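Please predict the structure of the following assembly.
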Amino acid sequence: MTVVKEHTPPLTGSPRPRGAARLGDLPFGAIASAALLAVVVVAAVAPGLLTRADPLAADPLRALAPPGGAHWFGTDHLGRDVLARVVHGAGHSLSIGAGAVLVAVGVGLLLGVLAGLAPRLLDEALSRAFDTLATFPDVMLALLVIAILGPGTGNVILAIGLAQIPNYARVIRAQTFVVRRSGYVEQAVTFGLAWPRLVLRHVLPNALGPLPVLATIGLGQAVIAASGLSFLGMGPQPPSPEWGTMLAEARNYLRVAWWQAFFPGVAVTLTVICLTATGRRLQRRFEGRRS
Amino acid sequence: MTTVTRRAAHVARRGLGGLAVLWAAATIAYAALLLAPGDTVDAIIGDGLDTPRIRAEIIAEWGLDRPEIVQYLDYLGRLLHGDLGRSYLLQRGVGEVLASQLPSTAALAVAAALTGVTLALALALVTAGRRTAFRSRLRALTGTAELVAVSVPPFLIGIVLLSVFSFRLGWFPVAGDRGLASLVLPALALGIPVAGVLGQVLREGLERAVEEPFALTARSRGITERALVARHALRHALLPAVTLTGWFTGLLLGGAVIVEAVYGRPGIGQIAVQAVDSRDMPVVMAVILFSAVVYVVVSSLVDLAYLVVDPRLRESR
């Protein structure tokens, strides 16, 4: 498709070149979070690069060994290598988070654009539906979904995704609303452009603006929610090395083995901090560009 | 229209809107019951004796042979009478079960809210005001702390507090609900994320408010920076924070589910998790409804509180 070509409307194009600023201009925090996120992504995609150990290989004779030579992060109550489990856990935790964001963005985009373009009555109905969905605390909604579907990775993705739909749908609706009433869309209408083409080429690309920011912050929130549900035993089942699941197991050994909880805890926290910080940086840039 | 009737109309509109949300919540809960796989009769029997006669009795007793729409209307009707149904598993009324767990969760939520608000207010007030080198550094520090506070899952804060204060130092009990001492750590675990978000909102609001024209007027009268913040700016900063109250309610209720699990505290959250595990749908539905009721009540109260916080709204409505 030739959507990309139309992305920047000619009249409002900023003189500042698009794309990343020079590396030297970026503050330390931005570089650090990008580097950490890169490590997490490598761990998720190719865990073998970071650790040789098998995350599932139990060795009861070496259970609860403190961090040291053979096991940098120590071993857990079954003698599994905590480092290997943390590294392999990245894939589980991130894919649940990313899956949930995809579900939420996909459905939110569809419903948001629909509400933004629809006649008033349908718009009103959809908006009320978003409001109602947003009424429930995310965790409660997720519990309801899991009560229906049962625990498991896919169901947690659906549960968290469903709870996040209103976040995206509302923003996309508002954006669509604005874009639809803007001058260039009205002009396109006077030129007699067909609706599907109008929506796909002019409304949609320009309504998408805030999505990357929202999705980055949303991914952080989804990772938190996923680890919470896994902690409650509703996500990936043991022995899967998911961060929340690992923390649930570690909860019982806090007194004797702090490292079993410490390292997955640090992993999930750092990941979310980097995602949130990156999202906010994007947000500031985005808002700066707008005003 | 006079102000009074206008305000009455506003309250009535709020009430109707709240009822509509509750009705939608009840419908979603009922839809969940229909969507749940497996036979309701099986769920009620559980591990008990399963004979055709018992099945027939259950169907008759619970009215499961009626058309779904009739059962739905019956469900709504019973809700109106305050009847939440009966737990499949516990063989007790769901209302009774919830009521017995409510005090524990309410204590946790209130304590956490107070902790969160106090922390956020303290941080916002300390860092607010004219820029000085010291304040700038403090601001950067609190900014980082807030970022961490919103990025750590609540259960992880719980685990950290637990291992430091209960296991290492032995200051607080490890689990259960035994008086105030056992409330401290759960309230902190739940309150810190609240403080993280609220602190950011308050600080941004304060920073904006001290730049407003009214701040200049107040300063020209020779008011101190402290008094300006406390008497004038805070009110303005509270407004965006109040908007988030509904969201905070969700955070507290949802977080309670997880924090209760960390600390083995009895409460609505524990009941909910158990019910989800055993697919005890009446309890799950009731918990969902309960959270919707709390949300509606809180956000309605907040809406009225707006009128108190912001006199400008009293005129325009």
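Residues 1-21 of chain A have pLDDT under 50 and may be disordered. Chain A touches chain B at residues 128, 131-132, 135-141, 143-144, 146-148, 220, 224, 227-228, 231-234, 244, 247, 250-251, 254-255, 258, 261, 265, 268-269, 272-273, 275-277 (CB under 8 Å).
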